[in-house]
């Protein structure tokens, strides 16, 4: 064997640490004169140079000698030449650069050297240039290259220490900054994540956040979003300047796939004041943190971020939640209310209940005892009041647990949490009595005035949100006060009658009514009275109205009497037409006639008004007042109609309602169905929703309303109306079934057709002649109705799903179809295949992907994997035949197959069902039908070995024959043939799995030996004790 060669480390001229081979001198051949030996002068460091190295080495074990060593190095620099000093300094530096990775002294030495160089950062030359030590140091250190990872990491660490040690007044030449930036940006492209992470910190003080073209900031943002290493993403989040233009990129890391990065992001965000963020950014931070799926992330948000933010406002909870308030719309206020409640719930867990109760500063007066002061009853204070009351009530509900159970529930933080529990809280009454709270809420409602400068729409939204909070607080009461319940019922009735409130407030009122009126019939009667009074406030009966009109006509002169009777005759004719249109279910015409009837009614009143004024003294009751009540009987605004429809909807949606009463059905006949064809979009939508709710409780209404809703989808062009109609159709189909709803008018239509046919035949037999002209519009309308009746609703909805480009309609259609599939109402393999393709399609929006993910998860839970099995073939062929501009080209066939194979394993399916048997035969049939498609052959052949087949000899024999046919007739490549051959061996039981080896995994023998050692050590400890 050749002898080993000596290797020396030498610094190259350009600063590179390179390996130089010291070769043996060549032998002198005969006849040649030997070369003269050159005298090599050793390059030794002596004198003050050694003192420099000794001073540097003195700090490697402790930091106590830093100041002494710094002073000594400064003295040596003044005595020595600059080149000699830097030579000794860099020699010592190279020693620590090449130390082993785990050397504990290297990092301390590099930190000391950085501090020493930074001492000269503020010292400039006579010409104003950077000090020579700083310039030479960076020139030498940036020129070093090495193949060793830890050397490159220490180079970046040295630059980081030096830059961090510079004072705020330190200045560097532009040339030096450019060189450092260029070199560190090069290291940010390194293959090692340790080097990339350390180079990020080296560049931290070199970024220019005010410049949009800063290369350092751009590199930080790129690595923050795209670097695969967690440490690098964490480093960029720490190093990047928290400026306004960088906040969106940082907020994106709140949704990082790794919980460590998300936690690190919140740690960084919590170090800055809440006032330094915009309101939208505060909401995004809290919303993502409080709803994070990781417990360690939620702990950081609760224990650190929320604590720091609430401390900025000196624990003024109302001011804190006001800082996260966006009140641009009703949806924003709802989100604000929910987010505030989540934040306060976590904050109150770490506060004493006595402090929370004292913060409310509730009034002690007898009239409003334990209530907030009315002048302080803002939306923010109502939220705080609700959460403190709920926190107090939760504590009271748990007071029966013994102290041992409380300690077990608290866990390791028992000492900290137990100090927050005050037994005196049990005796404190924080929730007012029901009658007192009703008086307080009545006073609040009557005297509400948010601001005269704000528009009426916003005041309505704000008032509704405050009312919702008051209603939620009152529901925390046990409702045992009967007098208070009656007072509350009267107050809620007044609110519904007199105030224009939002949909959500009406829904909350319905929840309160459920508790104070538990009997369903009485509850529906309560809502029926409210709706009737809104439609007909204080109106006498129809007979008394006609008596008033007839009395005034009899008192009129001849001309006025003739005009009045003509108008009255016209009104009677309109009533007959309205009745006919109701029978024909033409509600749009009914609405027009109703409006025309109202105009004639007002015209009649104006005609008879002078007569009423003339004879008002003839009776004890003013005829003028009676006359005005006739007009009031039909005059209601659009907002009243919408409010009535919402009340009707939530009345039948309360708990326990399984059928509708006669009074509620009368409200539907006289009010709800007349607005199904309303020209106002909101009115029509709520009329459809209310009619559908009635239909779910009364089948006769369902038969009438289904065709109306179906025609809305067919004729409408508005997105919101489409969305509502599709939801209603799916609700009816899920409740009654497709066959029952689609054949709802077949019997009536057949009977009517038979009658019409027989009548026409009789008429034609008796007489002959030309057919008279018929209105073409009526014929077109009838043809349109016939088309809607014969149209298959499922085909219509699937066509709408294929053609829809609106996210809201697509979501509604997907939700409806998924419900029908899960409930077994409707299913086709094409529809299931479409959902699979949409789930794997990378171009689909995230919301659609999430919906389908929940749907497929429910497929597994309900053990309906046969749907996936049936949809396999159309899905595969759609992927294979996808056009070149389709996003389905990015979907790998192998991923879809693996998903279906894993989902249909026997362990997940119903007992006794093995879908892999038929799945294997289907795989082989597809391969047999596509012998020239190598992609299909290879993908299916690879997945065959993953199937869990039954021990059926007939099945295995048939599969073996199929495989032999494929091997003989197909143009499969070598790897595909290997997969098929191995599958045949698996079927025959002769397959041997290949051995795999790992350089890191422990062998079973080593694991057993380690377990034995652990058991022996445990036994020795027990014996010693």
Q: With helices defined by DSSP (H or I, 4 residues minimum), what is the helix count?
A: 49
Low-confidence stretches: 1-25, 35-42, 406-421, 537-544, 617-624, 629-634, 747-769, 771-779, 998-1025
Main-sheet strand order equals: 1-2
Form type: extended
Q: Overall pLDDT, averaged?
A: 79
Which structural category do the helix and sheet elements fall into?
mainly alpha
Describe the structure.
- Residues 645-949 form the Nuclear condensin complex subunit 3 C-terminal domain.
- It is found in: Chromosome.
- It comes from Polypedilum vanderplanki.
- The protein is mostly helical and 1025 residues long.
- 65% of the residues lie in helices and 1% in strands.
- It has 49 helices and 2 strands.
- It has a two-stranded antiparallel sheet with strand order 1-2.
- The longest helix has 28 residues, at 587-614.
- 29% of the residues are buried.
């Amino acid at each position: 064997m050749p002898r080993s060669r000596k290797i020396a480390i030498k610094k190259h001229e350009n600063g590179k640490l390179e390996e130089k081979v010291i070769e043996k001198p060549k032998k002198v051949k005969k006849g040649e004169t030997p070369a003269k030996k050159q005298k090599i002068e050793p390059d030794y460091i002596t004198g003050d140079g050694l003192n420099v190295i000794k001073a540097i080495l003195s700090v490697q074990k402790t930091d106590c000698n830093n100041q002494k060593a710094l002073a000594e190095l400064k003295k040596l620099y003044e005595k020595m030449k600059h080149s000699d000093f830097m030579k000794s300094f860099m020699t010592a530096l190279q020693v620590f650069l090449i130390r082993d990775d785990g050397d504990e002294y290297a990092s301390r030495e590099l930190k000391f050297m950085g501090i020493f160089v930074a001492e000269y950062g503020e010292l400039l030359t006579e010409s104003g240039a950077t000090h020579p030590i700083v310039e030479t140091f960076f020139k030498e250190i940036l020129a070093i290259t090495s193949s060793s990872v830890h050397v490159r990491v220490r180079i970046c660490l040295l630059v980081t220490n030096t830059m961090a040690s510079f004072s705020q007044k330190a200045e560097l030449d532009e040339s030096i900054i450019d060189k450092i930036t260029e070199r560190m940006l090069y290291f940010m492209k390194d293959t090692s994540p340790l080097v990339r992470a350390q180079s990020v910190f080296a560049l931290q003080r070199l970024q220019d956040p005010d410049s949009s073209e800063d290369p350092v900031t751009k590199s930080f943002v790129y690595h923050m979003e795209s670097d695969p290493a967690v440490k690098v993403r964490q480093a960029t989040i720490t190093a990047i300047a928290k400026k306004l233009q960088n906040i969106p990129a940082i907020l994106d890391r709140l949704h990082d796939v790794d919980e460590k990065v998300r936690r690190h992001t919140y740690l960084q965000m919590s170090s800055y004041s809440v006032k330094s963020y915009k309101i939208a950014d505060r909401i995004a931070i809290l919303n993502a943190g409080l709803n994070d799926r990781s417990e360690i992330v939620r702990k950081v948000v609760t224990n650190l971020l929320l604590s720091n933010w609430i401390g900025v406002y000196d624990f003024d909870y109302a001011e804190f939640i006001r800082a996260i308030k966006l009140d641009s719309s009703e949806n924003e206020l709802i989100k604000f209310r929910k987010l505030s409640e989540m934040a306060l719930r976590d904050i109150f867990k770490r506060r004493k209940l006595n402090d929370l109760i004292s913060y409310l500063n509730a009034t002690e007066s007898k009239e409003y005892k334990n209530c907030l002061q009315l002048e302080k009853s803002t939306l923010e204070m109502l939220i705080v009041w609700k959460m403190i009351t709920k926190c107090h009530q939760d504590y009271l509900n748990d007071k029966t647990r013994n102290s041992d159970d409380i300690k077990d529930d608290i866990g390791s933080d028992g000492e900290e949490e137990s100090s927050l529990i005050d037994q005196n809280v049990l005796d404190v009454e924080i929730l007012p009595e029901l009658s007192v709270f009703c008086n307080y809420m009545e006073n609040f409602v009557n005297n509400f005035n948010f601001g005269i400068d704000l528009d009426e729409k916003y005041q309505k939204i704000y008032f509704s949100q405050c009312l919702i909070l008051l209603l939620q607080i009152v529901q925390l009461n046990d409702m045992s006060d009967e007098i208070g319940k009656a007072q509350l019922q009267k107050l809620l009735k007044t609110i519904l009658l007199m105030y224009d409130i939002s949909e959500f407030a009406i829904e909350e009122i319905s929840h309160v009514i459920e508790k104070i009126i538990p009997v369903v019939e009485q509850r529906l009667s309560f809502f029926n009275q409210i709706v009737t009074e809104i439609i007909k406030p204080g109106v006498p009966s129809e007979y008394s109205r006609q008596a008033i009109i007839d009395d005034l006509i009899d008192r009129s002169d001849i001309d006025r009497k003739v005009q009045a009777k003509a108008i009255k005759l016209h009104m009677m004719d309109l009533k007959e037409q309205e009745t006919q249109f109701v029978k024909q279910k033409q509600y749009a015409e009914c609405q027009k006639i109703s409006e025309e009837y109202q105009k004639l009614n007002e015209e009649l009143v104006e005609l008879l008004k002078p007569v009423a004024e003339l004879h008002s003294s003839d009776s004890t009751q003013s005829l003028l007042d009676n006359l005005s009540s006739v007009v009031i009987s039909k005059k209601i605004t659009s907002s009243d109609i919408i409010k009535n429809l919402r009340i009707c909807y939530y009345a039948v949606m309360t708990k326990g309602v399984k059928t509708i009463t006669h009074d509620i059905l009368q409200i539907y006949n006289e009010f709800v169905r007349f607005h199904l064809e309303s020209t106002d979009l909101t009115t029509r939508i709520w009329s459809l929703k209310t009619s559908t709710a009635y239909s779910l409780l009364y089948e006769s209404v369902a038969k009438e309303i289904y065709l109306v809703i179906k025609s809305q989808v067919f004729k409408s062009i508005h997105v919101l109306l489409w969305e509502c109609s599709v939801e209603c159709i799916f609700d009816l189909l899920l409740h009654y079934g497709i066959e029952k709803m689609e054949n709802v008018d077949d019997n009536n239509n057949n009977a009517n057709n038979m009658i019409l046919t027989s009548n026409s035949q009789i008429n034609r037999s008796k007489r002959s002649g030309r057919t008279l002209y018929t209105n073409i519009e009526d014929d077109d309308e009838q043809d349109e109705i016939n088309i809607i009746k014969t149209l298959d609703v499922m085909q219509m909805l699937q066509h709408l799903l294929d053609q829809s480009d609106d996210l809201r309609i697509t979501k509604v259609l997907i939700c409806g179809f998924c419900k029908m599939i899960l409930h077994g109402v409707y299913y086709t393999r094409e529809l299931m295949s479409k959902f699979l393709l949409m789930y794997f399609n990378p171009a689909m929006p995230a919301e659609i992907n999430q919906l389908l993910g929940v749907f497929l998860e429910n497929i597994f839970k309900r053990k309906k994997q046969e749907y996936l099995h049936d949809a396999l073939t159309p899905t595969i062929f759609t992927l294979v035949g996808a056009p070149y501009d389709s996003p389905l080209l990015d979907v790998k066939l192998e991923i879809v197959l693996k998903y279906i194979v894993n989902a249909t394993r026997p362990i997940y399916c119903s007992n006794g069902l093995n879908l892999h048997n038929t799945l294997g035969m289907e795989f082989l049939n597809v391969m047999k039908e596509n012998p020239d498609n190598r992609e299909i052959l290879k993908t299916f052949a690879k997945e065959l070995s993953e199937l869990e087949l039954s021990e059926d000899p007939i099945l295995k024999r048939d599969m073996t024959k199929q495989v032999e046919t494929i091997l003989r007739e197909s143009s499969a490549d070598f790897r595909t043939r290997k997969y098929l051959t191995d599958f045949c061996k698996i079927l025959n039981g002769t397959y041997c799995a290949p051995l795999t080896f790992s350089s890191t995994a422990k062998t079973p023998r080593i694991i057993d030996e380690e377990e034995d050692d652990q058991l022996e050590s445990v036994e020795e400890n027990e014996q010693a004790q």
